[in-house]
Amino acid sequence: MKALVYTDTETLExxxxxxxVPGKGEALVRxxxxxxxGSDMHAWLGHDERRPxxxxxxxxxxxxxxxxxxxxxxxxxxxxxxxxxxPACRAGRDNLCPDxxxxxxxxxxxxxxxxxxxxxxxxxALPDHxxxxxxxxxxxxxxxxxxxxxxxxxxxxTPARVLILGGGAIGFGAALAxxxxxxxxIAIVEPNPARRRRLSEIDRFTMLERAPTGAAPDLVVxxxxxxxxxxxxxxxxxxxxxxxxxxxxxxxxxxxxRRMTLQEITFIGTYTYTAQDFRDCAQALFDGRLGPCDWxxxxxxxxGAAAFRDIHGNAVAAPKLVLVP
Length: 325
Prior knowledge:
Layout: E1 2-8, E2 11-16, E3 26-35, H1 38-44, E4 60-65, E5 74-77, E6 80-81, H2 87-90, E7 101-102, E8 115-119, E9 123-125, H3 132-135, H4 138-155, E10 161-165, H5 169-180, E11 185-189, H6 193-202, E12 206-208, E13 219-222, H7 227-236, E14 242-245, H8 257-262, E15 266-269, H9 275-287, E16 297-300, H10 304-312, E17 321-324
Parallel strand pairs: 10-11, 10-13, 11-12, 13-14, 14-15, 16-17
Antiparallel strand pairs: 1-2, 3-4, 3-8, 3-17, 4-5, 5-9, 6-7
Helix pairs in contact: 4-5, 4-9
């Protein structure tokens, strides 16, 4: 098969690779669309020791099953492979499985390729009206869906005011999830003017260049994860409010711990999604509750190296760039 392989820092090459061989309980999927995630960018920049070169990256995948009893079925993929037997899995918190694996991280190659293997239980069937270029976005959207569900549980209801820091696919997806779950006052802070304009064309969320002053948000979603955004989140969130930390930009520093303590602010680190969250988010997308999800920019897989450079250079206005083999 043809694959886009991460071979060194800031280096991707199209190569001929062996077709993956599915194991017991696994399916082979012919990839039709695969999104570029921030974690792929971190790996490409050499900032993720969990993803050493050479490696096929990419975990936001939709395609058609190419082997096994579901051959021919159009699907989107939950990329998290979990054991199904540990306490976390039995409790429905399988995203915390200590033995979890994810495609695009050894020992599982990712989806920047013509074919990928995945456990059959991780396949979610697609309705005919949902294109692969939208279906592959269930994965990043599910991150926001899972995060908002956690916030609702802590807040014991729907947050009235929501502030999102970062207008990439994760942040924008969190905004879509917040609205689908009942919030109406939602603002997104995005410093990139081209992306800010593009997001304002896609939807009617309030778009801001910088964090606002005034009414404090009940919920702040940090979809960037840098010291500066953590500082902003912990300075602005309302007393008794919640910070959802999804971004992985910088590992340390930035929280106003004294204010968080005195104002009883809840900080939640949130990682991926449970299998149920993934299915629920997929159904919301299929039903149109997350909008048309037609806002990704698409490019051929063999132009993937240039796509990574463009994202790194802030030359992509769309919140998601999808590669098509």
